[in-house]
Amino acid sequence: MPKSLTATPLSAPVRDQPFDLNEAIFDSLTAASLSPQEGDVLAVSSKYAAIAAGRIVRLDDIRPSVRAEGLAQRYNMNAAIAQLVLDEADQIFGGIELGFLLTAKSGVISPNAGLDRSNVPSGKVVLLPRDPFCSAETIRRALQSRFGCRIGVILTDSWLMPGRYGTTGIAIAAAGFQPIRDERGKADLFGNPMAVTQIGVADALAACAQIVMGERDEATPFALLRGADLDLTDAPLSAADVSIPWRHCIYIESLTLGLLPADRPGKVTV
Fold first, then answer.
1. Rounded average pLDDT over 79-103
2. Rounded CA gap, 112 and 89, in Å?
């Protein structure tokens, strides 16, 4: 019988300057009278972690390049934002005239390399953590040292699912447990072997956490998840453990190299 999963949000002070993230986590847990148990997962807002590490910049301090100015004009963007995307993105696929570029950053497909202008003072932008998997691992070690149990950590962010309104949670990094559960080769309800299914455990937990953490003025940058069925590990994790090559991604491959030829029967016109 599957276990119940609970997600408890944890409040913390609003920040816009670097601070000690681990101490902030400990203070939030203490204020909520919560102690992590073996197999728990702590979800941490990637924005909160980024602010703690000083990854917040003033747009007025950015000097756009010629290329950034061109992108800004083409896609109706702030030129400073365009420059930050150029600086931060691992890859830029394209853009839309609503002011967004589709990018890849640390193995995650997202608008504008994950730059975030919400819940920060006007004129400032929060960048994603420089090395999110390292940040998650550092938090995990601090928690395990303090509480004496093996737990998992995820850095959460919100992203847009292709073709859908609304945001959902995604784990931009994880530590302490296997982020993917491979079901390939196992039998389904009718005894058929599973061919391609791999469950994104970390992303599913991030989506659960995001519901209780909120996205606006809740000031709850942490959530403690309890009851998840995890494969705990002390092995270091990286983007390679969760990200697939673009040629295997149905969205990226189909909308770039995999576009249907104009004269091919069955082409969908929109």
1. 94
2. 8
Reduce the DSSP state of residue 81 to 3 states and report it: helix
The predicted structure's pLDDT at residue 163? 87
Q: List CB contacts of 5: < 8 A, sequence separation 6 or more.
A: 208, 225, 226, 227, 228
Cβ neighbours around 55 below 10 Å, total: 18
Four-residue CA torsion sign, 193, 243, 233, 224: negative
Q: DSSP of 27-67, one letter per residue? A: HHHHHTT----TT-EEEEEHHHHHHHTT-EEEGGG----HH
Identify the burial level of 255 via C-beta atoms within 10 angstroms of its C-beta, where 0-12 means exposed, 13-18 middle and 19 or more buried. middle
Full-model pTM:
0.90
For residue 225, the tally of other CB atoms under 10 A from its CB is 23
In the chain the domains, ranked by start, together with CATH numbers, are 1-54+129-270 (3.30.1330.100), 56-127 (3.90.1660.10)
- Compute the average pLDDT of residues 177-204: 86
What SS3 state is found at 82?
helix
Q: Look up tokens 């290329």; give the residue.
A: 67
